[in-house]
Amino acid sequence: MKKIGILTGGGDCPGLNPVIRAVVRKAHTDGIGVIGIRNGWKGLIENDTVALDLGAVSGILHRGGTILGTSRTNPYKNKENVEKVKYNYKGLGIDALIVIGGEDTLGVAAKLCDEGLNVVGVPKTIDNDLSHTDYTFGFDTAVNIATEAIDRLHTTAESHHRIIVCEVMGRHAGWIAVHAGIAGGADIILIPEVPIDIEEVCASLKKRRERGKLFSIVVVAEGAKFKKGQAVTQEEKLDAFGHVRLGGIGQNLSELIEEKTGYETRVTVLGHIQRGGTPTAFDRVLGTRFGVEAMDLAKNGKFGYMVSLQGNKIEAVTIKEAIGQLKTVDMDLYNMSKIFFG
Ligand code: F6P
């Protein structure tokens, strides 16, 4: 093996730069060159690349985002683009491609692997909803940011005797809501996996007030839906992978709570603050371990495989296994969190 390529696709995520750095450092140790592909699959369609040497990855460990840029480009939307990807892959003279992404980006990687490209996956998403890995990097950072926000919302909610609804990310799975909600002492946590029963939410808030607690914090994942309702979206347009832009459930919920309980209610949407900025130590370590192991998988010809965290070990699983089914919230954990509702 002489040269490998690396790209980051989908939503950015704290910990991407530690993975890139680890891949380049390990490759350098093994005498292998690294080509960075800019902006996810878009860069491979357009042959937009950059050489990654030790200097290029110096000082990026603590930086959020990705030095390679990213996009939600899906080459399979257009046959011609798939041909361009294959042509450019060949033209770059790389022996393998390390793909860092979530279910969409890795879905493309799995298809390209079937078409003969030597692909290795690294799981990435703040949502933590990829299967066959206990955690994805970026999740811990997002949870810490959301927890700090909930702590801050507590003092203002308490001072004003208000309900504050905090909307966090989580398209299909409520991992961020559950972890940050438990860590921040939320009084109600609402997730995509369990339809929202507004009467139950209001009854719980009333019960809490009756026991003298004049404020409450409700954490809701952006993908949560009301019973019989649909996910709340910002626009109808779909992205290249068929996803809508979520957002707005917090506002709807807060209006309903105020209307039904008469308690003054406010909403805070954390949005992309959860994805930006410096990764936590946990995410830096996980990203570093993933990067080193991904290089080893590539060197050993384990194409079609993805690095994963199982317990405290980094293991290889097939990309297809990982994207086959989303990892939704562990209901034992969610039910445990309910002990602290109300
Ligand atoms: O997939 C990660 C994620 O942050 C989701 O939680 C969220 O729905 C989505 O990305 C937002 O995507 P974008 O940055 O493209 O608006």
Percentage of residues in DSSP E strands = 15-25%
Q: Any idea what the CATH architecture of the largest domain is?
A: 3-Layer(aba) Sandwich
The computed structural class is alpha/beta
Q: How many distinct domains? A: 2
The CATH class of the largest domain is identified as Alpha Beta
Q: What's the average pLDDT?
A: 97
Structure ligands: 6-O-phosphono-beta-D-fructofuranose
Taken from the alpha-carbon principal axes, the silhouette is elongated
Task: Tell me the CATH topology of the largest domain.
Answer: Rossmann fold
Total helix count? 11
Level of helix content?
Answer: 25-40%
Terminal CA distance reads 59 Å
Strand arrangement, major sheet: 3-2-1-4-5-12-13
Offer a few descriptive terms.
alpha/beta, Rossmann fold, 2 domains, four-stranded parallel β-sheet, 20% strand, binds 6-O-phosphono-beta-D-fructofuranose
In summary, what is this structure?
This protein is of the alpha/beta class and 342 residues long. Helix content is 40%, strand content 20%. The protein has 2 domains: 3-137 and 279-324, Rossmann fold (3-Layer(aba) Sandwich), CATH 3.40.50; 139-275, Rossmann fold.
